[in-house]
Protein backbone atom coordinates (compact mmCIF):
# COMPACT_ATOMS: atom_id res chain seq x y z
CA UNK A 1 0.00 0.00 0.00
CA UNK A 2 2.84 2.36 0.87
CA UNK A 3 4.49 1.55 -2.44
CA UNK A 4 1.28 2.27 -4.30
CA UNK A 5 0.89 5.63 -2.59
CA UNK A 6 4.47 6.53 -3.47
CA UNK A 7 4.02 5.45 -7.10
CA UNK A 8 0.78 7.43 -7.38
CA UNK A 9 2.39 10.52 -5.85
CA UNK A 10 5.34 10.27 -8.27
CA UNK A 11 2.95 9.95 -11.23
CA UNK A 12 0.73 12.83 -10.17
CA UNK A 13 3.75 15.04 -9.51
CA UNK A 14 5.09 14.21 -13.00
CA UNK A 15 1.72 14.91 -14.66
CA UNK A 16 1.51 18.24 -12.87
CA UNK A 17 5.10 19.22 -13.63
CA UNK A 18 4.98 18.13 -17.30
CA UNK A 19 5.24 21.21 -19.46
CA UNK A 20 6.04 23.37 -16.46
CA UNK A 21 9.56 22.32 -15.52
CA UNK A 22 12.49 21.56 -17.79
CA UNK A 23 13.51 18.61 -15.62
CA UNK A 24 10.47 16.59 -16.79
CA UNK A 25 11.40 17.23 -20.41
CA UNK A 26 14.89 16.05 -19.56
CA UNK A 27 13.51 12.89 -17.93
CA UNK A 28 11.34 12.31 -20.99
CA UNK A 29 14.21 12.61 -23.41
CA UNK A 30 16.31 10.27 -21.24
CA UNK A 31 13.53 7.66 -21.33
CA UNK A 32 13.19 8.26 -25.05
CA UNK A 33 16.91 7.68 -25.53
CA UNK A 34 16.36 4.19 -24.06
CA UNK A 35 13.25 3.62 -26.15
CA UNK A 36 14.57 4.93 -29.48
CA UNK A 37 16.76 1.86 -30.25
CA UNK A 38 13.56 -0.23 -30.05
CA UNK A 39 11.86 2.19 -32.44
CA UNK A 40 14.80 2.05 -34.84
CA UNK A 41 14.73 -1.76 -34.57
CA UNK A 42 11.01 -1.87 -35.46
CA UNK A 43 11.77 0.34 -38.45
CA UNK A 44 14.59 -1.90 -39.76
CA UNK A 45 12.52 -4.49 -41.70
CA UNK A 46 10.66 -1.71 -43.49
CA UNK A 47 13.89 0.03 -44.37
CA UNK A 48 15.28 -3.29 -45.57
CA UNK A 49 12.21 -3.84 -47.74
CA UNK A 50 12.68 -0.37 -49.26
CA UNK A 51 16.32 -1.12 -49.86
CA UNK A 52 15.54 -4.45 -51.56
CA UNK A 53 12.87 -2.74 -53.60
CA UNK A 54 15.38 -0.16 -54.76
CA UNK A 55 18.02 -2.80 -55.41
CA UNK A 56 15.77 -4.85 -57.65
CA UNK A 57 14.44 -2.02 -59.79
CA UNK A 58 15.23 -2.70 -63.41
CA UNK A 59 17.58 -0.58 -65.46
CA UNK A 60 14.88 0.62 -67.81
CA UNK A 61 12.69 1.70 -64.90
CA UNK A 62 15.61 3.57 -63.38
CA UNK A 63 16.37 5.28 -66.69
CA UNK A 64 12.74 6.26 -67.04
CA UNK A 65 12.61 7.63 -63.53
CA UNK A 66 15.86 9.44 -64.10
CA UNK A 67 14.49 11.11 -67.23
CA UNK A 68 11.36 12.15 -65.35
CA UNK A 69 13.39 13.58 -62.49
CA UNK A 70 15.64 15.46 -64.92
CA UNK A 71 12.58 17.05 -66.48
CA UNK A 72 11.28 17.97 -63.08
CA UNK A 73 14.60 19.49 -62.00
CA UNK A 74 14.66 21.48 -65.24
CA UNK A 75 11.19 22.89 -64.61
CA UNK A 76 11.90 23.62 -60.94
CA UNK A 77 15.18 25.32 -61.82
CA UNK A 78 13.50 27.57 -64.34
CA UNK A 79 10.94 28.48 -61.67
CA UNK A 80 13.77 29.12 -59.24
CA UNK A 81 15.33 31.63 -61.65
CA UNK A 82 12.17 33.65 -61.47
CA UNK A 83 11.91 33.32 -57.72
CA UNK A 84 15.48 34.55 -57.30
CA UNK A 85 14.59 37.66 -59.27
CA UNK A 86 11.40 38.08 -57.26
CA UNK A 87 13.27 37.61 -54.02
CA UNK A 88 15.81 40.34 -54.80
CA UNK A 89 12.97 42.60 -55.87
CA UNK A 90 11.14 41.79 -52.65
CA UNK A 91 14.23 42.64 -50.58
CA UNK A 92 14.61 45.95 -52.43
CA UNK A 93 10.95 46.84 -51.90
CA UNK A 94 11.17 45.90 -48.25
CA UNK A 95 14.24 48.10 -47.93
CA UNK A 96 12.32 50.98 -49.50
CA UNK A 97 9.46 50.43 -47.05
CA UNK A 98 11.87 50.07 -44.16
CA UNK A 99 10.31 46.68 -43.33
CA UNK A 100 12.16 43.84 -41.66
CA UNK A 101 14.12 41.71 -44.07
CA UNK A 102 13.04 38.12 -44.47
CA UNK A 103 15.77 35.79 -43.49
CA UNK A 104 16.79 32.66 -45.27
CA UNK A 105 16.16 29.27 -43.69
CA UNK A 106 18.28 26.20 -43.13
CA UNK A 107 16.67 22.87 -44.03
CA UNK A 108 17.38 19.22 -43.41
CA UNK A 109 15.71 16.20 -44.99
CA UNK A 110 14.40 13.60 -42.53
CA UNK A 111 12.61 10.30 -42.92
CA UNK A 112 9.52 9.14 -41.08
CA UNK A 113 10.16 5.91 -39.17
CA UNK A 114 7.66 3.08 -39.67
CA UNK A 115 6.61 3.09 -36.03
CA UNK A 116 3.04 3.32 -34.80
CA UNK A 117 1.91 5.21 -31.76
CA UNK A 118 -1.43 6.15 -30.29
CA UNK A 119 -4.33 5.69 -32.76
CA UNK A 120 -6.03 8.68 -31.14
CA UNK A 121 -3.25 11.13 -31.83
CA UNK A 122 -1.37 12.04 -34.99
CA UNK A 123 2.22 11.59 -34.07
CA UNK A 124 5.12 10.49 -36.25
CA UNK A 125 8.72 9.70 -35.37
CA UNK A 126 11.57 11.05 -37.52
CA UNK A 127 15.06 9.63 -37.87
CA UNK A 128 16.73 12.89 -36.79
CA UNK A 129 17.35 13.99 -33.25
CA UNK A 130 19.19 16.46 -31.11
CA UNK A 131 22.49 15.29 -32.59
CA UNK A 132 21.29 16.85 -35.86
CA UNK A 133 20.31 20.06 -34.10
CA UNK A 134 16.58 19.33 -33.96
CA UNK A 135 14.81 21.41 -31.31
CA UNK A 136 11.40 21.43 -29.63
CA UNK A 137 8.81 23.46 -31.53
CA UNK A 138 10.67 23.18 -34.83
CA UNK A 139 8.47 23.50 -37.95
CA UNK A 140 8.30 20.47 -40.26
CA UNK A 141 7.26 20.58 -43.94
CA UNK A 142 6.89 18.23 -46.85
CA UNK A 143 7.29 19.17 -50.49
CA UNK A 144 3.80 20.75 -50.59
CA UNK A 145 3.28 22.45 -47.25
CA UNK A 146 3.47 22.43 -43.49
CA UNK A 147 2.93 19.05 -41.80
CA UNK A 148 3.44 19.90 -38.13
CA UNK A 149 5.97 20.65 -35.43
CA UNK A 150 8.51 18.80 -33.31
CA UNK A 151 7.12 18.13 -29.83
CA UNK A 152 9.83 16.01 -28.25
CA UNK A 153 13.45 15.36 -29.08
CA UNK A 154 15.94 12.73 -28.06
CA UNK A 155 19.49 12.16 -29.28
CA UNK A 156 18.65 10.03 -32.31
CA UNK A 157 14.97 10.59 -33.11
CA UNK A 158 12.26 13.18 -32.63
CA UNK A 159 8.47 13.13 -32.45
CA UNK A 160 6.38 15.36 -34.68
CA UNK A 161 2.78 16.31 -33.94
CA UNK A 162 0.81 16.63 -37.19
CA UNK A 163 -1.44 19.58 -38.03
CA UNK A 164 -4.52 17.40 -37.81
CA UNK A 165 -4.03 16.26 -34.22
CA UNK A 166 -6.81 17.31 -31.89
CA UNK A 167 -4.51 19.42 -29.76
CA UNK A 168 -2.66 21.16 -32.62
CA UNK A 169 -3.46 24.70 -33.74
CA UNK A 170 -1.61 26.89 -36.19
CA UNK A 171 -2.03 30.62 -36.93
CA UNK A 172 -2.85 31.16 -40.62
CA UNK A 173 -3.95 33.85 -43.05
CA UNK A 174 -5.84 33.68 -46.31
CA UNK A 175 -3.32 34.13 -49.12
CA UNK A 176 -5.83 36.10 -51.20
CA UNK A 177 -6.61 38.89 -48.74
CA UNK A 178 -4.69 38.35 -45.52
CA UNK A 179 -7.68 37.53 -43.27
CA UNK A 180 -6.20 35.92 -40.17
CA UNK A 181 -7.52 32.90 -38.27
CA UNK A 182 -6.43 29.82 -36.36
CA UNK A 183 -6.59 26.38 -37.98
CA UNK A 184 -7.21 23.53 -35.53
CA UNK A 185 -6.86 19.78 -36.05
CA UNK A 186 -9.89 17.52 -35.74
CA UNK A 187 -8.35 14.08 -35.27
CA UNK A 188 -9.06 13.12 -38.90
CA UNK A 189 -6.08 13.00 -41.25
CA UNK A 190 -7.77 14.99 -44.03
CA UNK A 191 -9.66 17.58 -42.05
CA UNK A 192 -9.00 20.76 -40.10
CA UNK A 193 -11.32 23.59 -39.04
CA UNK A 194 -10.96 27.35 -38.75
CA UNK A 195 -11.77 28.60 -35.29
CA UNK A 196 -13.66 31.76 -34.32
CA UNK A 197 -14.16 33.23 -37.79
CA UNK A 198 -17.07 35.71 -37.92
CA UNK A 199 -19.89 34.99 -40.39
CA UNK A 200 -19.00 38.06 -42.39
CA UNK A 201 -15.32 37.26 -42.92
CA UNK A 202 -14.25 37.24 -46.57
CA UNK A 203 -13.32 33.59 -47.00
CA UNK A 204 -14.54 31.48 -49.93
CA UNK A 205 -14.25 27.82 -50.88
CA UNK A 206 -10.92 27.17 -52.58
CA UNK A 207 -8.98 29.80 -50.64
CA UNK A 208 -5.46 28.77 -49.74
CA UNK A 209 -4.39 29.36 -46.15
CA UNK A 210 -0.73 30.07 -45.45
CA UNK A 211 1.18 30.42 -42.21
CA UNK A 212 0.89 33.93 -40.83
CA UNK A 213 4.12 33.94 -38.85
CA UNK A 214 2.22 35.00 -35.74
CA UNK A 215 2.92 32.86 -32.72
CA UNK A 216 6.66 32.88 -33.52
CA UNK A 217 6.75 29.19 -34.29
CA UNK A 218 6.05 28.71 -37.98
CA UNK A 219 7.77 31.12 -40.39
CA UNK A 220 5.54 33.29 -42.56
CA UNK A 221 4.23 32.21 -45.95
CA UNK A 222 4.13 28.39 -46.11
CA UNK A 223 0.95 26.73 -47.45
CA UNK A 224 -1.10 24.97 -44.77
CA UNK A 225 -4.59 24.09 -45.99
CA UNK A 226 -7.31 24.71 -48.52
CA UNK A 227 -10.90 25.70 -47.70
CA UNK A 228 -13.25 22.87 -48.77
CA UNK A 229 -16.56 23.92 -47.29
CA UNK A 230 -18.15 26.87 -45.50
CA UNK A 231 -21.38 26.74 -43.55
CA UNK A 232 -22.79 30.04 -42.36
CA UNK A 233 -25.55 29.73 -39.79
CA UNK A 234 -27.13 33.09 -38.82
CA UNK A 235 -27.98 31.60 -35.42
CA UNK A 236 -24.33 31.02 -34.58
CA UNK A 237 -21.67 33.57 -33.85
CA UNK A 238 -19.03 31.92 -36.02
CA UNK A 239 -18.96 30.27 -39.43
CA UNK A 240 -18.14 26.54 -39.73
CA UNK A 241 -15.19 26.37 -42.08
CA UNK A 242 -13.69 23.00 -42.99
CA UNK A 243 -10.18 22.74 -44.43
CA UNK A 244 -8.08 20.09 -46.08
CA UNK A 245 -4.34 20.10 -45.33
CA UNK A 246 -2.23 20.72 -48.42
CA UNK A 247 0.57 18.39 -47.33
CA UNK A 248 -0.14 14.71 -47.96
CA UNK A 249 -0.36 13.68 -44.34
CA UNK A 250 -1.54 10.13 -44.97
CA UNK A 251 1.52 9.19 -46.99
CA UNK A 252 4.40 11.18 -45.59
CA UNK A 253 7.74 9.47 -45.94
CA UNK A 254 10.29 12.23 -46.43
CA UNK A 255 9.96 15.57 -44.71
CA UNK A 256 11.97 18.76 -44.26
CA UNK A 257 13.03 20.14 -40.91
CA UNK A 258 13.28 23.91 -40.94
CA UNK A 259 15.57 26.24 -39.00
CA UNK A 260 14.01 29.68 -39.29
CA UNK A 261 16.43 32.60 -39.12
CA UNK A 262 19.47 30.48 -39.80
CA UNK A 263 20.82 31.33 -43.24
CA UNK A 264 21.14 28.21 -45.35
CA UNK A 265 24.50 27.27 -46.73
CA UNK A 266 22.64 25.35 -49.38
CA UNK A 267 22.91 27.86 -52.17
CA UNK A 268 26.58 28.57 -51.66
CA UNK A 269 27.25 24.83 -51.41
CA UNK A 270 25.27 24.14 -54.53
CA UNK A 271 27.15 26.81 -56.41
CA UNK A 272 30.44 25.31 -55.32
CA UNK A 273 29.29 21.81 -56.19
CA UNK A 274 28.01 22.94 -59.55
CA UNK A 275 31.26 24.69 -60.42
CA UNK A 276 33.25 21.73 -59.12
CA UNK A 277 31.21 19.38 -61.29
CA UNK A 278 31.69 21.59 -64.29
CA UNK A 279 35.40 21.65 -63.70
CA UNK A 280 35.45 17.88 -63.42
CA UNK A 281 33.41 17.68 -66.56
CA UNK A 282 35.92 19.87 -68.34
CA UNK A 283 38.79 17.78 -67.18
CA UNK B 1 9.70 -17.79 3.34
CA UNK B 2 13.29 -17.48 2.24
CA UNK B 3 13.95 -15.20 -0.67
CA UNK B 4 15.37 -17.14 -3.58
CA UNK B 5 18.31 -15.75 -5.48
CA UNK B 6 17.17 -14.05 -8.66
CA UNK B 7 17.88 -15.99 -11.83
CA UNK B 8 16.94 -15.37 -15.42
CA UNK B 9 15.82 -11.88 -14.62
CA UNK B 10 16.95 -10.75 -18.07
CA UNK B 11 13.96 -12.63 -19.50
CA UNK B 12 11.54 -10.19 -17.84
CA UNK B 13 13.15 -7.19 -19.55
CA UNK B 14 13.56 -9.17 -22.76
CA UNK B 15 9.86 -10.07 -22.89
CA UNK B 16 8.85 -6.48 -22.13
CA UNK B 17 11.07 -5.17 -24.96
CA UNK B 18 9.35 -7.55 -27.36
CA UNK B 19 5.96 -6.43 -26.09
CA UNK B 20 7.04 -2.83 -26.81
CA UNK B 21 8.00 -3.92 -30.32
CA UNK B 22 4.53 -5.43 -30.76
CA UNK B 23 3.02 -2.17 -29.53
CA UNK B 24 4.96 -0.18 -32.16
CA UNK B 25 4.73 -2.32 -35.29
CA UNK B 26 2.87 -0.27 -37.88
CA UNK B 27 -0.60 -1.55 -38.78
CA UNK B 28 -3.36 0.08 -40.86
CA UNK B 29 -5.15 2.94 -39.13
CA UNK B 30 -8.54 1.22 -39.00
CA UNK B 31 -6.97 -1.77 -37.22
CA UNK B 32 -4.92 0.36 -34.84
CA UNK B 33 -7.99 0.89 -32.65
CA UNK B 34 -8.07 -2.86 -31.96
CA UNK B 35 -4.42 -3.26 -31.03
CA UNK B 36 -4.26 -5.00 -27.63
CA UNK B 37 -2.38 -3.30 -24.79
CA UNK B 38 0.57 -5.65 -25.00
CA UNK B 39 2.63 -3.94 -22.33
CA UNK B 40 -0.25 -3.93 -19.86
CA UNK B 41 -0.63 -7.69 -20.46
CA UNK B 42 3.07 -8.19 -19.81
CA UNK B 43 2.83 -6.20 -16.58
CA UNK B 44 -0.19 -8.23 -15.47
CA UNK B 45 1.61 -11.49 -16.21
CA UNK B 46 4.80 -10.64 -14.32
CA UNK B 47 2.89 -9.22 -11.35
CA UNK B 48 0.91 -12.46 -11.12
CA UNK B 49 3.78 -14.85 -11.80
CA UNK B 50 6.62 -13.21 -9.85
CA UNK B 51 5.07 -10.75 -7.40
CA UNK B 52 8.33 -10.61 -5.40
CA UNK B 53 10.39 -9.63 -8.49
CA UNK B 54 8.02 -7.45 -10.43
CA UNK B 55 5.96 -4.87 -8.61
CA UNK B 56 4.51 -1.41 -8.61
CA UNK B 57 7.69 0.49 -9.41
CA UNK B 58 8.61 -1.70 -12.36
CA UNK B 59 5.07 -1.20 -13.64
CA UNK B 60 5.43 2.55 -13.12
CA UNK B 61 8.60 2.55 -15.22
CA UNK B 62 6.85 0.62 -18.03
CA UNK B 63 4.04 3.17 -17.87
CA UNK B 64 6.48 6.06 -18.20
CA UNK B 65 7.98 4.45 -21.31
CA UNK B 66 4.49 4.19 -22.82
CA UNK B 67 3.90 7.87 -22.02
CA UNK B 68 7.03 8.73 -23.97
CA UNK B 69 6.09 6.50 -26.88
CA UNK B 70 2.54 7.84 -27.20
CA UNK B 71 3.29 11.47 -26.26
CA UNK B 72 1.06 11.51 -23.19
CA UNK B 73 1.90 13.84 -20.33
CA UNK B 74 4.60 11.97 -18.43
CA UNK B 75 3.00 9.98 -15.62
CA UNK B 76 -0.44 9.19 -17.10
CA UNK B 77 0.29 5.58 -18.02
CA UNK B 78 2.60 5.45 -15.02
CA UNK B 79 -0.31 6.12 -12.67
CA UNK B 80 -2.65 3.69 -14.44
CA UNK B 81 0.05 0.98 -14.52
CA UNK B 82 0.86 1.37 -10.81
CA UNK B 83 -2.77 0.87 -9.88
CA UNK B 84 -3.04 -2.06 -12.29
CA UNK B 85 0.05 -3.67 -10.76
CA UNK B 86 -1.30 -3.12 -7.24
CA UNK B 87 -4.61 -4.85 -8.03
CA UNK B 88 -2.72 -7.74 -9.64
CA UNK B 89 -0.54 -8.14 -6.55
CA UNK B 90 -3.69 -8.15 -4.39
CA UNK B 91 -5.45 -10.90 -6.34
CA UNK B 92 -2.48 -12.96 -7.55
CA UNK B 93 -3.24 -16.03 -5.39
CA UNK B 94 -6.83 -16.29 -6.60
CA UNK B 95 -5.84 -15.44 -10.18
CA UNK B 96 -3.52 -18.43 -10.44
CA UNK B 97 -6.38 -20.80 -9.56
CA UNK B 98 -8.47 -19.71 -12.52
CA UNK B 99 -8.74 -21.49 -15.84
CA UNK B 100 -7.38 -19.60 -18.84
CA UNK B 101 -10.75 -18.34 -20.06
CA UNK B 102 -11.65 -17.15 -16.57
CA UNK B 103 -8.32 -15.38 -16.40
CA UNK B 104 -9.16 -13.63 -19.67
CA UNK B 105 -12.37 -12.37 -18.05
CA UNK B 106 -10.45 -11.07 -15.04
CA UNK B 107 -7.91 -9.39 -17.34
CA UNK B 108 -10.80 -7.59 -19.01
CA UNK B 109 -12.10 -6.43 -15.63
CA UNK B 110 -8.60 -5.31 -14.62
CA UNK B 111 -8.14 -3.33 -17.84
CA UNK B 112 -11.45 -1.44 -17.59
CA UNK B 113 -10.34 0.77 -14.68
CA UNK B 114 -6.89 1.04 -16.32
CA UNK B 115 -8.40 2.56 -19.47
CA UNK B 116 -10.88 4.62 -17.48
CA UNK B 117 -8.05 6.24 -15.51
CA UNK B 118 -6.21 6.98 -18.76
CA UNK B 119 -9.32 8.48 -20.31
CA UNK B 120 -9.86 10.71 -17.30
CA UNK B 121 -6.26 11.85 -17.28
CA UNK B 122 -6.35 12.53 -21.01
CA UNK B 123 -9.47 14.67 -20.69
CA UNK B 124 -8.01 16.43 -17.69
CA UNK B 125 -4.64 17.25 -19.23
CA UNK B 126 -5.37 17.67 -22.92
CA UNK B 127 -9.09 18.39 -22.88
CA UNK B 128 -9.92 15.98 -25.71
CA UNK B 129 -12.98 13.76 -25.70
CA UNK B 130 -12.49 10.35 -27.27
CA UNK B 131 -15.45 8.27 -26.14
CA UNK B 132 -16.08 4.54 -26.01
CA UNK B 133 -13.54 3.59 -28.67
CA UNK B 134 -10.98 3.94 -25.95
CA UNK B 135 -12.17 0.70 -24.30
CA UNK B 136 -11.83 -1.50 -27.41
CA UNK B 137 -8.24 -2.54 -26.51
CA UNK B 138 -9.54 -3.94 -23.19
CA UNK B 139 -11.64 -6.46 -25.17
CA UNK B 140 -8.88 -7.42 -27.62
CA UNK B 141 -6.34 -7.64 -24.79
CA UNK B 142 -8.58 -10.08 -22.91
CA UNK B 143 -8.99 -12.09 -26.11
CA UNK B 144 -5.24 -12.41 -26.67
CA UNK B 145 -4.42 -13.04 -22.98
CA UNK B 146 -4.29 -16.88 -23.20
CA UNK B 147 -1.67 -16.65 -25.97
CA UNK B 148 0.49 -14.10 -24.16
CA UNK B 149 0.13 -16.09 -20.94
CA UNK B 150 1.29 -19.36 -22.51
CA UNK B 151 4.24 -17.76 -24.33
CA UNK B 152 5.47 -15.96 -21.22
CA UNK B 153 4.92 -19.03 -19.01
CA UNK B 154 6.90 -21.26 -21.36
CA UNK B 155 9.67 -18.68 -21.47
CA UNK B 156 9.67 -18.37 -17.71
CA UNK B 157 9.93 -22.14 -17.26
CA UNK B 158 12.57 -22.65 -19.92
CA UNK B 159 14.83 -19.91 -18.59
CA UNK B 160 13.97 -20.74 -14.95
CA UNK B 161 13.06 -17.17 -14.10
CA UNK B 162 12.54 -16.82 -10.36
Number of helices of chain B: 7
Q: Based on CA inertia axes, which overall geometry of chain B fits?
A: globular
Radius of gyration of chain B: 15 Å
What do the pLDDT scores of chain B average to? Answer: 89
> What would you say the CATH architecture of one domain in chain A is?
Beta Barrel
How would you characterize the overall build of this protein?
The complex is a heterodimer of chains A (283) and B (162). Among the domains of chain A are: 59-102; 169-246, Rod shape-determining protein MreC, domain 2 (Thrombin, subunit H), CATH 2.40.10.350. Chain A is built from four helices and twelve strands; from the N terminus they run H-H-H-E-E-E-E-E-E-E-E-E-E-E-E-H. Chain A has helices at residues 2-17, 22-55, 59-97, 266-282, and strands at residues 106-111, 123-126, 139-141, 146-153, 158-162, 169-174, 180-185, 192-195, 208-211, 223-231, 240-245, 254-259. In chain A, the strands form two sheets. In chain A, strands 1-12-3-4-5-2 form a six-stranded antiparallel sheet. Chain A has a six-stranded antiparallel beta barrel with strand order 6-7-8-11-10-9. In chain A, strand 3 (139-141) and strand 4 form a beta hairpin. The longest helix of chain A has 39 residues, at 59-97. Chain A starts with a helix and ends with a helix. Chain B is mostly helical. Chain B has one domain. Chain B contains seven helices and no strands. The mean pLDDT of chain B is 89.
Attribute tags:
heterodimer, A: 283 residues, alpha+beta, Thrombin, subunit H, six-stranded antiparallel sheet, 4 helices, 12 strands, disordered C terminus, B: 162 residues, mainly alpha, 73% helix, globular
Compose a concise summary of this entry.
Chain A has helices at residues 2-17, 22-55, 59-97, 266-282; strands at residues 106-111, 123-126, 139-141, 146-153, 158-162, 169-174, 180-185, 192-195, 208-211, 223-231, 240-245, 254-259.
